[in-house]
């Protein structure tokens, strides 16, 4: 662990970021250039004292999970993330861990979307980050682990996952998810996480196995659908996806036409919050 270089790198990256780069209000009378230490610590879900010790070369070796959180909070590129890991005496992230690193360009856009549900997904349907309104609509998806991190896996193994779609639209959603997974499988290969997901689902879901044999391939860039909220009922939304250059991540933005019932329901999501969503389930 190179404490001196690690501290200097963290400090420099913190000073180069502005509050608005990470979705924070600019505020008045800021003494420090860039972000404050407590702001970085809060974004990374760690104590301010621990982060301060990192910058002062007094900390123990941070875990890989903590380094991944710092990389996301400081909006590091893949190369910068790998450098951070090496300075902390850790190996660069494996493909599994690396895939959870949100593309900084998508994160900057997400930070500016506070009035409509938005989330960033991997090409395997893993929710990497979601804004407050997306949590209120879908529930908090950050607690899943293993294969269940993929909404595709949950769709075919957990009946509760389907409640957000009207019953007459679930077959279409099943086909769309399988077609998306086949596209990811084609680009990532059978020995990848996509291959692991396919093998598990073929064992566990007859429906998936039958749809997989159709060999349908598709990536949806836009969609119009109805979602079912446990408190607000049906909400008709337009879905737009913004992909990274390598197609491995997508920012999904859900909107409704102004002055419609659906638009008003989206506004109400911020009032209800995801706690009520969990209660209703």
Report on the architecture of this protein.
With 281 residues, this protein is α+β, with helices and mostly antiparallel strands. It has two domains: 96 residues, lambda repressor-like DNA-binding domains (434 Repressor (Amino-terminal Domain)), CATH 1.10.260.40; 177 residues, 2-Layer Sandwich (Beta-Lactamase), CATH 3.30.450. It is built from 13 helices and five strands. Strands 2-1-5-4-3 form a five-stranded antiparallel sheet. α2 packs across α3, α10 crosses α11 and α11 crosses α12. The chain is globular. The N and C termini lie far apart (46 Å). The C terminus is likely disordered.
Order of helices and strands: HHHHHHHEEHHHHHEEEH
Estimate the strand proportion: 5-15%
Shape: globular
Low-confidence stretches: 277-281
Level of helix content? Answer: 40-55%
SSE class: alpha+beta
Largest sheet: 5 strands, antiparallel
Strand order of the largest sheet: 2-1-5-4-3
How many helices? The count is 13
Number of domains: 2
Average the pLDDT over all residues and give the rounded result. 85
Distance between the termini: 46 Å
CATH architecture group name of the largest domain: 2-Layer Sandwich
CATH class of the largest domain: Alpha Beta
Fill in the keyword field for this structure.
single chain, 281 residues, alpha+beta, 434 Repressor (Amino-terminal Domain), Beta-Lactamase, 2 domains, 5 strands, disordered C terminus
Short structural description:
A five-stranded antiparallel β-sheet has the order 2-1-5-4-3. With 281 residues, the protein is α+β, with helices and mostly antiparallel strands.
């Amino acid at each position: 662990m190179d404490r001196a270089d690690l501290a200097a790198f963290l400090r420099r990256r913190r000073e180069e970021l502005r509050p608005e780069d990470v979705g924070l209000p600019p505020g008045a009378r800021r003494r420090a250039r860039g972000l404050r230490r407590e702001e970085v610590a809060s974004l990374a879900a760690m104590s301010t004292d621990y982060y301060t010790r990192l910058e002062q070369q007094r900390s123990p070796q941070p875990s890989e999970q903590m380094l991944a959180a710092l990389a996301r909070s400081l909006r590091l590129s893949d190369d910068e993330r790998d450098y951070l890991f090496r300075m902390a005496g850790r190996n660069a992230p494996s493909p599994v861990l690396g895939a959870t690193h949100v593309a900084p360009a998508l994160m900057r856009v997400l930070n500016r979307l506070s009035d409509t549900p938005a989330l960033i997904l991997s090409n395997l349907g893993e929710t990497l980050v979601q804004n407050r309104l997306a949590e209120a609509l879908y529930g908090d998806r950050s607690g899943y682990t293993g294969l269940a991190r993929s909404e595709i896996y949950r769709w075919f193994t957990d009946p509760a996952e389907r409640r957000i779609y009207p019953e007459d639209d679930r077959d279409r959603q099943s086909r769309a998810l399988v077609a998306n997974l086949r596209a990811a499988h084609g680009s990532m290969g059978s020995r990848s996480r996509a291959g692991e997901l396919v093998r598990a689902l073929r064992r566990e879901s007859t429906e998936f196995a039958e749809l997989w044999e159709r060999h349908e391939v598709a990536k949806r860039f836009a969609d119009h659908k109805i979602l079912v909220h446990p408190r607000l009922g049906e909400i008709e939304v337009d879905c737009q996806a913004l992909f990274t250059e390598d197609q491995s991540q997508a920012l999904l933005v859900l909107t409704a036409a102004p002055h419609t019932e659906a638009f008003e329901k989206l506004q109400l999501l911020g009032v209800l919050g995801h706690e009520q969503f969990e209660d209703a389930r």
